Amino acid sequence: MQSFQRHRRLRQNGSIRRMMREHHVSSADFIYPLFVVEGEGIKKEIPSMPQVYHYSLDQLEAELDEVVALGIPSIILFGVPEEKDACGSEAYAEDGIVQKAIRLAKERFPDLYVMADTCLCQYTDHGHCGVVENGAIHNDHSLDVLVKTAVSQATAGADMIAPSNMMDGFVAAIRAGLDEAGFENVPILSYAVKYASSFYGPFRDAVDSTPQFGDRRTYQMDPANSREALREAASDVAEGADVLMVKPGLAYMDIIRQLHDRFDVPITAYNVSGEYSMVKAAAQQGWINERNVVLELLTGMKRAGAELILTYHAKDAARWLKEAKE
């Protein structure tokens, strides 16, 4: 009889399959995004993102309680201000919506790890991630505003700054600004590799940040490029980034793997709004098993090399993982 490998020996039953499993997803891997708004009594579902909401601060408390109870260790806060202007001044306001949300979260749960998204697109009336001058994004003037924003967020109590703007030199500028302000122990999670992706549509609805002119391709990356991702990541590591992000995650697992293999810092995958909403829409139609698809997707990101996953699925996934252990 011809000799061949019997790989199925290690798939005979659930016990051996669990023993042989190479990658595991845990609620400890998750960063959960939250959208905070001004006002009172607001818990409003975002139409293009089922089960994701805008929260006013008085409603945020109950959401934080649930996140902590599910064993999710970290959140990232995105703010939607009442007023926007050309330079995004609400981004660095002492009483800005994110600054207030940071203080609330840390007062309620001191051990909850609170990250702050550091960008301007939610705060500018033109929807771009930097300062616009003469119809173009001015890189270095944008850095000045981003540094003020990062310092303001750290002053409010943010445990980690997560700049997502893709301006050249943003990590070096923010690192220097944090250090000068006495926040040398506040780490930076850099959105080092952020593509000009079509998967961001629901997020832009959530924060009303669709650009009012042009697009973001002068600062976000071409989806066709991978070597460029390595250059961007190398710059950010050299400038002081503590953690690197790849955004989006699902269509860029090859990039996650390349960064994981090349750089000796933790890698985060951002499972973005469009990826989330596609799964939710298919599940609502009964076309897929949502639980199985989500856990497979998150496992794929871990297998690709992501130590952390920023995902809107975090609460659902944490419940499913908890149920599987009971």
Automatic annotation (TrEMBL):
Pfam families: ALAD. The keyword Lyase applies. GO terms for molecular function: porphobilinogen synthase activity; zinc ion binding. Pathway: Porphyrin-containing compound metabolism; protoporphyrin-IX biosynthesis; coproporphyrinogen-III from 5-aminolevulinate: step 1/4. Its cofactor is Zn(2+). One of its GO terms (biological process) is protoporphyrinogen IX biosynthetic process. It comes from Marininema halotolerans. This is Delta-aminolevulinic acid dehydratase. It comes from the Bacteria. Its EC number is 4.2.1.24. Mg(2+) binds at E232. InterPro entries: ALAD, ALAD_AS, Aldolase_TIM. The keyword Aminoacyl-tRNA synthetase does not apply. CDD domains: ALAD_PBGS. Keywords: Heme biosynthesis, Lyase, Magnesium, Metal-binding, Porphyrin biosynthesis, Zinc. 5-aminolevulinate 1 binds at R204, R216.
